Amino acid sequence: QVQLVESGGGLVTAGGSLRLSCAASGSIFSIRDMAWYRQPPGQQRELVATITSSGSTYYADSLKGRFTISRDNAKNTVYLQMNSLRPEDTAVYYCTDINDMGVHEYWGQGTQVTVSS
User: Fold this and answer.
1) What is the mean pLDDT of residues 94-106?
2) pLDDT above 80 for 2
3) Among 6, 22, 43, 92, which is most exposed with the fewest C-beta within 10 angstroms?
4) Is 35 helix (H, G, I), strand (E, B) or coil?
5) How far is CA 71 from CA 12, 46, 115, in A?
6) What gap in Å lies between CA 73 and CA 46, rounded to an integer?
């Protein structure tokens, strides 16, 4: 069983920054690709970024240049650095794994990010 626990969310004013963390239990973390998703109020969950086990990254086009995904396999943790935050970035942010079949097998409980104007 793998558990993913997000932290680092909160309230920030527009233009500010936050760094989210996702700590994973279990020995499979280092071999799994990981991803961050977000779900804005009243909207569907959407992909933010992914990172492979070797560190290759992918970002949603609208977030390139502002968000950075990274990981520390020694700490079983994946991060999301968010800069120049906008009110439209307000959402619950989730981390998830991506198994060999491309399936998100595990999800964290989410962390709320609220950006005020």
Assistant:
1) 92
2) yes
3) 43
4) strand
5) 23, 20, 24
6) 25
pLDDT at 27 over 90: no
pLDDT, one tens digit per residue, over 67-86 is 999 999 999 999 999 999 99
pLDDT confidence of residue 40: 97
Whole-number Å distance between alpha carbons of 38 and 111 = 9
